[in-house]
Write a structure and sequence with these properties.
The protein has 345 residues and is α+β, with helices and mostly antiparallel strands. It has two domains: 27-267, no CATH class; 272-345, no CATH class. It has helices at residues 4-25, 29-39, 53-56, 62-74, 94-98, 114-120, 142-146, 157-164, 181-188, 229-234, 253-266, 279-287, 299-302, 304-318, 322-341, and strands at residues 46-51, 79-83, 89-90, 126-127, 135-139, 168-172, 199-204, 210-215, 238-243, 246-252. Strands 4-5-2-1-6-10-9 form a seven-stranded mixed sheet, sandwiched between helices. The chain has a three-stranded antiparallel sheet with strand order 3-7-8. Helix 8 crosses helix 11, helix 9 crosses helix 11 and helix 12 crosses helix 14. It is globular. The chain starts with a helix and ends with a helix. The model is unreliable at 1-8 (pLDDT under 50). Bound molecules: zinc ion. Zinc ion binds at residues 221, 223, 273, 275, 278, 280-281. Zinc ion is lined by residues 221, 223, 273, 275, 278, 280-281.
Length: 345
Amino acid sequence: MVDRDSDAPDKVREMQSVSKAVNMVGITKERLVSDLRKMGLNRGDHVSIASALSKVGYIAGGPEAFIDAVIEVIGPEGTLMVNTYTAFFQVFQLEAVNNCPPFDPKLTPCVTGVVSETLRKNPQAMRSRHPTSSVAAIGKKASFLTKGHGPYAKARLPYSRLAEIEGKSLFIGLGNNLVALRHEAQFRAGLIDIVHLESCINYLDEDGKTQLFKGADVTACTRALPRLVPVMMQRGMVKEGTIGNARSILVSTKEALDLMTDLLRKDPTQNLCDDIVCIWCRELERKMSLYKNIKNPLLFQKNIILIQLLGLINRHRLRGSRQAARSIFVVMTAYKWMNKYVSVK
Ligand SMILES: [Zn+2]
């Protein structure tokens, strides 16, 4: 007769060793293929993917296995596109720009994660030539998506093209941050140009000569934009699921861009973060006179003295004044003190 009590520790140890073995094997390519299909990715799809692969869990075979899984799902008729963004500086940091190697689409590593970096290095992938906002793509429409996306093109041109061909955008482990689409929506809503925040980097042109790139549509504050995703969910435009252990969302690129653009155009206050130091949001609300439209304005959005002071400092910050850059932090500290100890209407 087996003594069940004395047998229990062995069973626990056995289960622990099985669990350990599974963890060591990690998430297989087959599991990823299954998860991607359950998310709604199909054969022939053209898809942009932005991911935090660490949220997926340990993948047997690493990012290469992840990319193989996507290609297996979409097949040779489909296309995979990732952003391969690179470092840049603000216009007043030209000294730093000149100390940084110029962007070379063949060599410059991206800063957008291991999947992007792995696909960029794939000899079959194409990379566009935009100095800050390049993409890499592999598959049937790779040439269409990347062609002409150079220093004079719109920063998110490939995402507009993806929308044209009924593409999809998949976000893995990034919360509700619709990377790249959010900047394209800001651009389409006419917001990016309102605050002229130039991004700079040197790049190698097609003749191998070093040129200076300046782009005013590269960056803008996106911290408030996850709030648009629940609106999309209410309209049934978002497919939620998991890839490995990562919460993931899939949208139609065109539908998402159209709705985000529409929401931002109708109510630009949706774009405002609540950081007093954020030059982009504070200048956007000042230049568009949004103060009366803000539903729950903060003190620096309703106190006329603070509004004037921030406007003055931020205009100088945009011109590259280091004194203004320092003084904004003095204002921030004073603001925190006022909020805590003084009632200011
Ligand atoms: Zn902001």
